[in-house]
Amino acid sequence: MLLNESEKIHPSRKGLKSTIIGILLNALLAIIKGVAGVLGNSYALVADAIESSFDIFTSFITWVGLKTASKAPDEDHPYGHGKAEPLAAMVVSLSLIAAAILIAIQSIENIRTPHDPPAAFTLVVLALVVAVKEGLFRFVHKVGDEVASNAVKADAWHHRSDAITSATAFIGITIALIGGKGYESADDYAALIASVIIVFNAYRIFMPSFAEIMDKAPDGRLVEEVKEIALTVKGVQGIDKCFVRKMGFEYFVDIHVIVDGSLSVRTGHDIAHSVKNAVLQAKPTVYDVLTHIEPA
Questions:
Q1: Residue 4 has what pLDDT?
Q2: Which domain holds residue 168?
Q3: Which UniProt keywords apply (predicted)?
Q4: CA-CA distance, 203 to 106, in Å (whole number)?
């Protein structure tokens, strides 16, 4: 049975739910880390709060991208609005880089300016943050895998970056407290290291999204599976070409099948529709199939 429209947009609803959960948790953590960082004299924790604030913005961008990508095709967008999803992921990755640059600049400034060491209670806050953000990363990334969404995965990596930033801050503050005089800037160095890690993660987010925008062939066995399905259709003698491109949560297939050259146009037309229906029934993530008939 072919999927109806409501079933096709179901993946976006899962992604939207995980994004909203992330926004709410980020807002709470940003406040906790910001207050603790100021009171505890830890710029690494303040930097962490800054990133959480960026996470709220980028999660909202993800939410908008998912909402737009889930819209049905219309007269102006006959292929749907799926490209909004990787575009959102690219915006998220660029925002990550911007946050990393801000953190790096302030970290260098703090390293050059003598200051008191952070308070010990900030370690408790950071330990809590690492646990929450790592758990959130695993939850959101699992959703991203389930719905095959680069935007949701990008949102997940934002949470992992936050966990990494908090972990490096924890190490830096611990060194500052144990080392005593002369080690006051350890947490600033930790924030600087975290900014480099954030840039690396941003690159990991950007490239798959850019590839999707450029209609790169999807990884995995999807193309081969589509060919195998088409070959099971009565009248199909072989496959000449098969192209697959991702559009948001779904895939569009262009396939050239080889049939007996003496068949009538109507019979060839029926075979083409049979190929399309077979692929759509077997692969729910495929939105449409354009079948071209090649005479043997």
A1: 44
A2: 5-213
A3: Membrane, Transmembrane, Transmembrane helix, Transport
A4: 22
